[in-house]
Amino acid sequence: MYIQHLYGLFSHPHAEWDSIKKENYSMTHVYLAHLAFLAGIPAISLYFGTTQVGLSLTGDEYITLSTERALPLSIAFYCAMLVGVGFMSYITFWMEKTFGAEASFERCLTFISFTATPMFFVGLVGLFPVIWLNVLVVMGAVCYSLYLLYVGVPIFMNIPEERGFIFASSILTAGLCTLIGFMAATIIIWGSGIIPALAI
After folding, report:
1. Cβ atoms 108, 164 nearer than 8 A
2. What contacts 15, CB < 8 A, 6 or more positions away?
3. Tens digits of per-residue pLDDT, 109-135?
4. What is the pLDDT of residues 138-158, one digit of tens each?
5. b/e map of 127-148 (b: 16 or more CB within 10 Å)?
6. What does pTM read for this prediction?
């Protein structure tokens, strides 16, 4: 059922959001049947990309990470994505009554996980980690996720479009703050001595 919805979100998102909101998914089902696999796409791709191909800013010189350094970073990245989706779902659940929506945490988790799906899928670009290419592809996925967010909120939460726009903008703001928080945590962790070493 999830795969069918994923196709629909790319081909006819308005109708697909209406279809998704009629179904009920448990938190366990969302994490085990959806997020556990999707979060693995960028994590595994970056692991193989950084150890086998190497990081590059321009595509000319490549810096390869050792497997001992790349593996814990990939696992941390995988866990961070799962935690990030859960946190954004909680923020959405916390804000919903302010905007007149009536949805459980599980429904908010379902909504956020489907909204973030394009960003998970483009994680495949991590197999060829050239920074400028990765940034362009990820920005394209972010734009489509934002489109899904603004289209989906009024439909999935069953609220007027005007209120849905403000709700979606609030979710976006919370998402940006979450991203900054994760970036700050990454800088602190790397600054404490966990710095990738070059493979020899």
Report:
1. no
2. 8
3. 999 999 999 999 999 998 988 888 888
4. 999 999 999 999 999 999 998
5. bbbbeeebeebbeebeebbbeb
6. 0.86
